[in-house]
Amino acid sequence: MKCEMQVKARRRLQIPVACVVLCAAAAVFPQATPQRRAEQQPTFRVESNLVLVDVTVRDKKGDLVKDLRKDEFTVYEDNTPQEIVTFSLENIPVALPENVAEEERPKTPVVNFSATPRPEQKKEELKDKRLILLFFDLSSLSTEDLVRAVTTAEDFVLKKSTPHDLVAIATYSTTLRDPSTSEDVFVPDDVQFNVFNTDRRLSAVEDLAKTYREYPERKSLVYFSSGMTTTGIENQSQIRSTVDTANQSNMSIYTVDARGLSALPPGGDASRGSPGGRALFSGDAIARQTASLSSSQETLTTLAQDTGGTAFQDSNALAPVFDKVLSDTQTYYILGYYSANTREDGKFRKIRVEVSRPGLRLQHRPGYFAAKQFNKLTQTERDRQLEEALNVDRPFSDLPFILQADYFREDGGRCQVPVSLQFAGDGVQFEEKGNRREAQVEFIARIQDSKGNVAGVARDIVQIQLPEQKAEKVRSGQILYTTGFQLRPGDYKLKFLVRDNRTGKLGSFEQSLQVPPLDTKKLQISSVILGNRLVDAKENSQGVEHRGFGERFRGMEGGRDPLVIDNKKIVPSIGNVFVNRQTLYVYFQVYGAAEDPPTKKPHLETRLLFLRNKTKTLESQPHFVAEWTKESRGTAAVTMAVPLRGLKRGNYTLQIHLRDNVSDTNLFGRLPLVIN
């Protein structure tokens, strides 16, 4: 078996719209018709409500038990016994019989799941077969790590695998290759989902689990990467969604950190400069290095432990992952039952399996979430669904999106927290209404403080009515939505839900949010907003109607929108991804600047430096600010526009140097940036 995953991307041409920005797209390649697109991508459907559970049974010595009968098992769902309707024992040899020459090995045919039409694979052919998926995360693997991972996988396939092993290969990358020119095409908008958070990688793992769900046998996914570095905007909901989908699909994930054993010399290795100040001598430098390594491995550990797999880290030997896979999948039982609970309420159903023979240890997945038909819900039930979704740990990923929360000072010790989120237009269903197309999207958000108290809520229903041609462009682009809160300094937890009110698709996003204390007693800055577009703040969006209530932005309920200056609103580029033909707009506020005694005004100077591999590649002209904002004395606004022409594609660090020329005080800040 061989399958191949690719990341799809398109260039975006964005159209400004009030609180909702509909971003149309011009495709990189000719658009496929719906029929052609359906033919190119295989679709797997499971119409049965049969629940499958794979169970591994060991005795007191840890040896696998292979002689249990169906009548010795009892399955409970929410403590209610279920009737076992299907039962099978999967017993797979670990190694080839002795004295089998290489030329006598049976040849397993290669099945390309990327082919059109998709080759038929009979389920009976998978009996007593070990299903292994090798997933190479090319977006994180360095060349050296990739070579090590591929070499280890080749050794397994060529030397250790048997005719009982069926292997699928998948890759994940942030580049798209144009088959007509064999050139890499790098497109910014979809990359925003990839570069600074783990969501798209986790979503790719989830898609793999869904793809192979129709096969009841246990699947083992070996995920090779160089870690998943968290950045503060990673989606906790997506992690739980991926784990739950893998459990429903009988898939265990074995994560491999291909970096091997990482030595952490104090102060860093030769790839970076030594830290300045006291960090090297106080232990702060090595503490940060250790924390960074641990953070990059945390998500890998979670994926493995919560799906019954194992995480392989801090070892130069990668081959043991395959020994573990072979051992774990040698012998197991597959039990199937139709749930006695026929309610499609979307709640979690807990599974417990017992055997009548004493002294045995069982391992199986903990449960699953029931389905619920959205089109059968009343409006009251739909409202209750959103309220319940805010209060449960279940993640929702049918309508994935990314989110960015920022903070700006406001008088009275509070902060304004604008929140921007973005999702693909093709995730929303447009309904035909004559020559127009209609869609309805609902947003609901909640912020809780460190004690669990609700500190802010927002809810909005957006009705979209567009001509057919414009609606098709929106479906090929992105939709940007903004809202906001007023919060006091502190630690918070933000949960945001988006629902397509035509199909009931839900997407959720959770993240921690820290609002720092901002005052005018010392030099401080707000969040730094990076964008590639400015829109008219007073421009109304034709065809978009808001039915919001609660704390939807609307100028922050009589206050001011911190992203608006001089009647122009900067649209945040979530993920900080740009192309080198664009202009980079930088916006932030400065607090606590000293006043020049003669003028009673500030005298601020800002410079931007673009660093690549510790080398300065571009420096902006100095930008001077000598006025307070109209809204607040003691607050100054810095707005800069820098053409990105001439910058090569790659990862950059944007360094911001702010100098208060009155008090002779300097502030520095750094942000990651990607230029394409």
| Proportion of beta-strand residues | 35-45%
> Helices and strands: which structural class?
alpha+beta
Question: Major β-sheet, in short?
Answer: 7 strands, antiparallel
- What is the class of the largest domain in the CATH system? Alpha Beta
Total helical elements? 11
What would the average pLDDT be, to the nearest integer? 78
Low-confidence stretches: 1-18, 24-47, 176-197, 550-558
What global shape is seen? Answer: globular
The end-to-end distance, rounded to whole angstroms, is 35 Å
The counted number of beta strands is 40
- Helical coverage, percent range: 10-25%
Total number of domains: 3
CATH level 3 topology of the largest domain: Rossmann fold
CATH architectural arrangement of the largest domain: 3-Layer(aba) Sandwich
What does this structure look like?
This protein has 676 residues and is of the alpha+beta class. The protein folds into three domains: 13-45 and 382-556, Immunoglobulin-like (Sandwich); 93-329, 3-Layer(aba) Sandwich (Rossmann fold); 579-676, Immunoglobulin-like. The strands form eight sheets. Strands 21, 22, 23, 25, 26, 29 and 30 form a seven-stranded antiparallel β-sheet that branches. The two termini are 35 Å apart.
Detail the topology: elements first, then pairings.
Elements: E1 11-15, E2 20-26, H1 34-40, E3 50-58, E4 73-77, E5 80-82, E6 84-91, E7 130-137, H2 143-160, E8 165-172, E9 176-178, E10 183-185, H3 188-191, H4 199-211, E11 219-225, H5 236-248, E12 251-257, H6 279-282, H7 284-306, E13 311-312, H8 320-328, E14 331-338, E15 348-355, E16 361-363, E17 367-369, H9 379-391, E18 401-405, E19 408-409, E20 415-424, E21 431-433, E22 436-449, E23 454-467, H10 468-475, E24 478-487, E25 490-500, E26 506-515, E27 524-525, E28 529-536, E29 544-546, E30 549-550, H11 554-557, E31 564-565, E32 568-572, E33 577-578, E34 583-591, E35 604-612, E36 615-619, E37 623-625, E38 635-643, E39 650-660, E40 665-675
Parallel strand pairs: 7-8, 7-11, 11-12, 12-13, 33-40
Antiparallel strand pairs: 1-2, 2-24, 3-14, 3-16, 4-5, 4-15, 6-14, 9-10, 15-17, 18-20, 19-20, 20-24, 21-22, 22-23, 22-25, 23-29, 23-30, 25-26, 27-34, 28-32, 28-34, 31-32, 34-38, 35-36, 35-37, 35-39, 39-40
Helix pairs in contact: 4-5, 5-7
